[in-house]
Write a structure and sequence with these properties.
27% helix; 6-stranded mixed sheet; alpha+beta; single chain; Nuclear Transport Factor 2, Chain: A
């Protein structure tokens, strides 16, 4: 597969993640998360494995992020080798019920994060091996 086709596949996976988030569908959100993947949330909590990834998202979709909408905008796809991709994503979250303790949003109420996803490719396609999400703090004067 060429890098253009690989990039198109990754774009489609991220678009599917956005749709799944906006439906509150944790199973679909985690469908391309690697069985042994690493997940760090905006609070710095670390989880490992697809099951934990899906369970954590199911919890937040039912609680603080119930009814929220995510806009995921890919800033960069870097393919350093044929079977790995580093994907930088800007995320903007609106319509949430609340924020977890320790997270904050600016006055406009949009929770912005910088999401880094590391993809690996094997015989059955591209998988998210690492998902590292950091909330962007409001700038200090």
């Amino acid at each position: 597969m060429s890098s253009t086709a690989d990039e198109e596949t990754i774009l489609a996976i991220v678009a599917d993640q956005q749709k799944a988030w906006n439906r509150g569908d944790a199973e679909r959100f985690g469908v391309r998360f690697h069985e042994e993947g690493s997940f760090t949330n905006i609070l710095g909590d670390v989880f490992h494995g697809r099951t934990a990834f899906i369970e954590r998202h199911d919890f937040i979709f039912r609680t603080v992020f119930h009814g929220s909408n995510a806009a995921l905008s890919i800033r960069r796809i870097h393919l350093p080798v044929d079977d790995a991709a580093i994907v930088d994503i800007d995320s903007a979250l609106t319509g949430y019920a609340g924020l977890p303790a320790g997270a904050s949003a600016p006055a406009d109420g949009i929770l912005r994060t910088s999401l880094l996803e590391v993809f690996i490719k094997n015989g059955d396609g591209w998988w998210i091996a690492a998902f590292h999400n950091v909330d962007i703090k409001p700038r200090r004067a």
